[in-house]
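Known limitations

Structure tokens in this collection are predictions and should be treated as such. Users comparing against experimental data should check residue numbering before alignment. To illustrate the layout, the record for Pseudaminic acid synthase is reproduced below. The input appears on top and the generated tokens appear beneath it.
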Amino acid sequence: MIEIGGRPVGTNAAPFFIAEMSGNHNASLDRALEIVDAIADTGAHALKLQTYTADTMTLDIRDGDFLIDDPKSLWHGRTLYDLYEEAHTPWAWHEPIFERARKRGMLAFSTPFDPTAVDFLASLDVPCYKIASFENADLPLIHKAASQGKPLIISTGMASLSEIGETVATARAAGCEQIVLLKCTSAYPASPSEINLMSIPHLREAFGTEVGLSDHTMGIGVAVAAVALGASVIEKHVTLRRADGGVDSAFSMEPDEVRMLIKETAVAQQAIGSVRYGRGLQEEGSVRFRRSLYVVTDIKAGEAFSAQNVRAIRPGMGLLPKHTEHVMGRKAARDIKRGTPMSWDLLS
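Generated tokens:
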């Protein structure tokens, strides 16, 4: 269990839901604030931005390595510079967005993509830092973010186990012990078959951190399953309406979907419980609906019990059916009325 901004994060608390706005503000501060309000109404715990500029991310080159040429990509045919120029959240917007989120009861923080972004976010007193999957091998950035004295949330997309080990070791060497590792598949959208949620308990065991899921699949099923496997944090991209478009809109959740996800992951967390068998508190009243042995015809004293006068029926107030062989052929100790539950004192 750790704390982020005073809120407990762990398997004994409701799953910590992070709403990632990313570039879904569509270059409008008014829309960004509208997203904040809509997401706050869902019960989300935190709102997250991304802090970069096109110039801190890449070079303004329009061909070669700087052109997205994967035909399967949502951003096929665009340059990295143009994509980041459209998707970035202006740094001047961070403070009003964070302030609106805090007023609406949410924590607010961001993903820094270079050291200047870490310094900028430190000036805004964010409660934690998030490291994106594409930066989880940038050990100097990890060290700088981890040295700020705040919790660190790290997505593990594309990283090998040894690379995750280097990242965690770097963060701890910088003095950060409150770490959350997020299982992540860096595809947009991601297929459920590529998520491999069994990695979640393994990450917890391997590194002794809190674990969660940064989820790019559609719907809520993967997130609910992740919580059942021990995820204490869920991160999803959010938007007002996918139909409005935007760089990440195709795999982002709308507010009603967020509300359902928060509800169902909380239910999943409550249902995990512990290894337990036997009657639960709510089952006590149901025991009477088991089958048990009952006298089904009137019996005279001294008459033998048989399949004709004793049967296993509901309710469950008599001897259990497993005692049938010990009852059949024995004599009745007294007259017994039809509908009497079998008990040992009825046997002579």
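For this record: The first strand starts at residue 2 and ends at 4. Residues 110 and 236 are 14 Å apart (CA to CA). Please report discrepancies through the issue tracker.
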